[in-house]
Amino acid sequence: MSRAILMTAMWCLAGCSSGGGGGGEPAAPQPGDAPAAAAEPAAPAAKRKIAVIPKGTTHEFWKSVHAGANKAGQELGVEIIWKGPVREDDRDEQVKVVESFIAAGVDAIVLAPLDDTALVPPAKDATREKIPVVIIDSDLQWDGRTSFVATDNHQGGAKAAERLGELLGGKGKVVVLRYQEGSASTMKREAGFLETVAAKFPDIEIVSSNQYGGATTESAYKTSENLLVSHEDVDGIFCPNESTTFGMLRALQDAKRAGEVKLVGFDSSAKLVEALGKGELHGLVLQNPFRMGELGVKTALAKLDGKAVEARIDTGVGVATKENMAEPAMRELLSPDLSKWLK
Question: Are 118 and 180 members of one domain?
Fold first, then answer.
């Protein structure tokens, strides 16, 4: 074999081995070659979605719940989806909201049911789809929930009775303006109030306890007007939520009896705080709705993470009066700054 042929054969063998995948060094890029494709970065993990469904979206109470839920969501890196009916008597709409979140495949649901039986079927549907359900504010007649995060509402009603009994010196005529049938939280408050009056204040006469204010301030106002006409000699009144308290306050103001009739209510708003300071309202039983929303979300996330959660979480209750409303802890409950969390 000639020397030229031998050199050509050796060059061919070297070139073939350098381009193969048998472990040799990769060939150096040549002019005109296309640039190598860069490795694509891994897609960021999708945020978990937690649906928070209030009884309604109008009252100040629910704005605090929303703010607390948002705080937890921001701190824990989950997406909070807030949606509920406008009115707190729209059971069908709340059922539809729950069903829509199940269909959307959210990771967990935090629900404040406006009816303790009507919301059981959709809550069961959620758990069948492996979506944990945390109940806040008002309980369901169902033991399949992940947890119940709320005020001790019976105790809240008892505290209202103690406050009103103290104001009346243990005697007088009292009206209870109820909220609406099917609302477990307010029914427990009403029961706590009536049982405590019967046990501790035998000289207080309950002259009316079968009237309902309904879901709005306007409906509560109309019922309050009728009650004040029917019971002109009433000495004290208990109302179990924000809308009934404000409706009754307006009726007393219009009748020029605000401050004269002792009024103890539930929950807070700017108008109620103003009335408390003026002596037109004599006590407000306060929940902690901000903490309720925050703990509801945190409990749902803990369940998703496989952690043990408590079946019942009490978010606390207190009574604000004209005398203690300036104290820092009470002021925070009466007039919380929600602007940071409701942007």
Answer: no
Report the candidate in 250, 54, 283 with the shortest Cα–Cα distance to residue 166.
283
Q: How far is it, in rounded angstroms, from Cα 263 to Cα 16?
A: 97
Q: What are the backbone angles phi and psi of residue 108, rounded to the nearest 5°?
A: -160, 160
- pLDDT of 39 reads 52
Residue 244 lies in domain: 153-286
Other CB atoms within a 10 A radius of the CB of residue 259 amount to 15
CB 177 within 8 A of CB 145: no
Nearest CA to 330 out of 341, 343, 342, 317 is that of: 317
Task: Please identify, among 270, 286, 302, the residue that sits at the C-terminal boundary of a domain.
Answer: 286
Q: What is the pTM of this model?
A: 0.82
In a domain, 293, yes or no: yes
pLDDT, average across residues 293-319: 97
Measure CA 342 to chain center: 14
Q: Are residues 159 and 282 in the same domain?
A: yes
Between residues 274 and 3, which one has the greater pLDDT? 274
Cross-strand bridge partners of residue 237: 175, 263
Tell me 207's DSSP state.
E
Look up tokens 């993470």; give the residue: 305
Q: Tell whether 238 is covered by a domain.
A: yes
Query: What is the C-alpha to C-alpha distance for residues 80 and 38, in angstroms, rounded to an integer?
Result: 35
The answer to whether 317 and 151 have CB atoms below 8 angstroms apart is: yes
CB 137 within 8 A of CB 111: no
